[in-house]
Amino acid sequence: MQGEESLRILVEPEGDSFPLMEISTCETEASEQWDYVLVAQRHTQRDPRQARQQQFLEELRRKGFHIKVIRDQKQVFFGIRADNSVFGLYRTLLLEPEGPAPHAELAAPTTIPVTTSLRIRIVNFVVMNNKTSAGETFEDLMKDGVFEARFPLHKGEGRLKKTWARWRHMFREQPVDEIRNYFGEKVALYFVWLGWYTYMLVPAALTGLLVFLSGFSLFEASQISKEICEAHDILMCPLGDHSRRYQRLSETCTFAKLTHLFDNDGTVVFAIFMALWATVFLEIWKRQRARVVLHWDLYVWDEEQEEMALQLINCPDYKLRPYQHSYLRSTVILVLTLLMICLMIGMAHVLVVYRVLASALFSSSAVPFLEEQINRCVALKLCDFEMPRTFSERESRFTIRFFTLQFFTHFSSLIYIAFILGRINGHPGKSTRLAGLWKLEECHASGCMMDLFVQMAIIMGLKQTLSNCVEYLVPWVTHKCRSLRASESGHLPRDPELRDWRRNYLLNPVNTFSLFDEFMEMMIQYGFTTIFVAAFPLAPLLALFSNLVEIRLDAIKMVWLQRRLVPRKAKDIGTWLQVLETIGVLAVIANGMVIAFTSEFIPRVVYKYRYSPCLKEGNSTVDCLKGYVNHSLSVFHTKDFQDPDGIEGSENVTLCRYRDYRNPPDYNFSEQFWFLLAIRLAFVILFEHVALCIKLIAAWFVPDIPQSVKNKVLEVKYQRLREKMWHGRQRLGGVGAGSRPPMPAHPTPASIFSARSTDV
């Protein structure tokens, strides 16, 4: 028999009724050849589900896949690998001859190495798209209990465990190429992006820390803080129904000083800086991605072409699904999406109601109204209704839908505090009440900026820390529990291959959304870091600390605690780039509105240049904000309270003050209020235009693709054209052929990475 021929040996495994399996002896039967495993419960071998199981596996055999069966006490493992003919077909479909004629020297395609990632990718695609004669897919069989699980095997991960997936390597550079070889380009690009994002957070974190610390230099020198601390004779009107007492303004002295740490003139500069930072971060990321993708030789890789090739491998009669667009379907999707957004806004109103009732019941707990699983289910249903053509198209649309819903879920509380809290409450004596009973929430006595600062501090500090702890402890505890339950049987397989498959089976399951969830987590964090950064300059610093932990946390989960992710090819982060750009625009709008409507920046500036004593006295030694506190507080006559005697300490109190711009006795908005409103709106428009112009200039100034990468690609195209020309003239008799140009088939990694990050 020829060495290249496949000798198929029929082996009857232990047990009673499973059909004979095929093993090809033309390849080494080393355990590393079995990269993909299906798992079924042992009891399925003795009920009607076995027939459906056999049909599915027989269909895989017919397509050129070999199957090995190993039985454990409770599970049956099916090892799967593709025949060499499958990889040959893959090469044939994706590699085209470069020459215009069948010259062996030119027309021979460059060999694609049959890596473990490629083997897993092909097997996984065929398994997930394989159908029995009854039209049942693997997902259908899993729902009916015919199969329990599917996963690629962890093999050769020892180096990643030693050099990457350990806490002590937190400050080491990531082995990106090794991650790519093991987990595929999509996972590797996630870690490249996350590493770059963390690196770029350093200047933002230092700048935010500097802005925050600069407030300490004015901690005692602020004129506004001095006036508040010395205002022993100013009584503030009662804020709520449960604390019906007058409060001296001087009692808020400490909070006034703390507020000045983040509500100062430096906040505006920092907000503009973060708008510029977000743009520079994205533009430099695009350049970094171009270098990495060229290094991986994926610069001209076509995702659609690869998916069509895999479809043809799975089914030679595969019919191409053309692009389609339905205006009716798009309209329905748009209407449904808008309805969901309206529902989110309605839930924000419910949040107002809940907080009011919670306040009435002396409760400070928070109840999440929208769960992540609801948003995921709705986004999936919308995507299924759209009928996307390919998996990548479905993933892209799902990303947009799901992020939109998650954005409103995560940011509703911040939007409420920044732009709603304390602004629809009426005034003392005539407060807006829910159902005529409960008074709406008020801002903190020192202003709404303090509430927003505290909320951001909780999210970026406490919530991120708890999230990282849960993200690590839950998979760790789950894996330990699965391992302990398996060890209780006292049965340790002697077969080393079965032990390895069983070890992989006991790891935590992964699914299509595993990497997606990691991206979503970081996008939400990026939103918190940029959108309300004007209220919390320390957000980039806390995000930096969190990301340093997140990188190693994700690495440990993927290598130690979870089953191996199916390697997927990719040359960018996909729709997530559009999400980042959208967040950048939203950050400009939100920060402008926070500065204009939430902080005291605009009222201070207007007072300084319109009402301050500097304009009247012309004395440079007088602080221009002198008298601002008294100017910003409205007067309320206590006799206008519905129950003035029911307020504690009401004796000899004829008036109190509150934060607003109203005139007694009718308490309508004053002229100052309308003037301030006009200035606030003008500032928002000016701020957004200036910040967006800076973003556009930065995007234009920093090219998306480095010139070194463009020149390398251009050089490859030029040399290949010269090669074709040389072969063409040789075919015509050698007239003017000249010397053959030296040219590598593909650019080498060394030559590509000779370009430094300073290349323009």
Notes on the protein architecture:
This protein is an alpha+beta fold and 760 residues long. Helix content is 56%, strand content 8%. It has a 4-stranded antiparallel beta sheet with strand order 4-5-3-6, sandwiched between helices. It has a two-stranded antiparallel sheet with strand order 1-2. It has a two-stranded antiparallel ribbon with strand order 7-8. The two termini are 60 Å apart. Mean pLDDT is 82; it is low at 1-32, 96-110, 356-370 and 745-760.
List the helices and strands and how they pair.
Blueprint: E1 8-11, E2 21-24, E3 36-41, H1 49-62, E4 65-71, E5 75-82, H2 84-94, H3 104-107, H4 116-129, H5 138-143, E6 149-152, H6 158-163, H7 176-183, H8 185-217, H9 223-229, E7 235-236, E8 247-248, H10 253-262, H11 265-295, H12 303-314, H13 327-360, H14 372-386, H15 391-419, E9 426-427, E10 430-431, E11 433-434, E12 438-439, H16 448-487, H17 496-505, H18 514-531, H19 539-561, H20 576-598, H21 601-610, H22 613-617, H23 628-632, E13 633-637, E14 655-659, E15 662-663, E16 668-669, H24 671-701, H25 707-731, H26 749-752
Antiparallel strand pairs: 1-2, 3-5, 3-6, 4-5, 7-8, 9-10, 11-12, 13-14, 15-16
Characterize the main sheet.
Answer: 4 strands, antiparallel
Tell how many strands the DSSP assignment holds.
Answer: 16
Low-confidence stretches: 1-32, 96-110, 356-370, 745-760
Strand order of the largest sheet: 4-5-3-6
As an assembly, this protein is single chain
- Give the CA-based shape: elongated
**Strand residues, percent:** 5-15%
Indicate the radius of gyration in whole angstroms.
33 Å
Mean pLDDT score: 82
Span of the ends, CA to CA: 60 Å
Count of discrete alpha- or pi-helical segments spanning 4 or more residues = 26
Structural class: alpha+beta
Portion of residues in helices?
Answer: 55-70%
